[in-house]
Amino acid sequence: MDTSDTNRRRMRSGAVALGGMGLLAATLVACGSSEPDKRCASRSTLEHLNAKECRTGGRGAYYYGGSVSNGKVTGGSFDKSAVTRGGIGGGSHSGSSGG
Description:
Blueprint: H1 3-31, E1 38-41, E2 61-69, E3 72-77, E4 83-85, E5 92-94
Antiparallel strand pairs: 1-2, 2-3, 4-5
């Protein structure tokens, strides 16, 4: 076996290790994502709708955070930036500012 074979093997094993680290990092970032939960709802009635109503010109809009109670969304916002999520094990919180 010559040194070029040894170098290729080292490069392959190094690439596998780096690829595995990248996958681990991506998984950890996804778990601590700051993306709030979203659901489809009517802006006028706050009625919880099927997700297809928020796609392709349906009558719904995405409602971020909060929950669904008696078929209506509550405790969140249609404004994604007004809602934060607390990472692993964190709950959704609605944010507002007084003035």
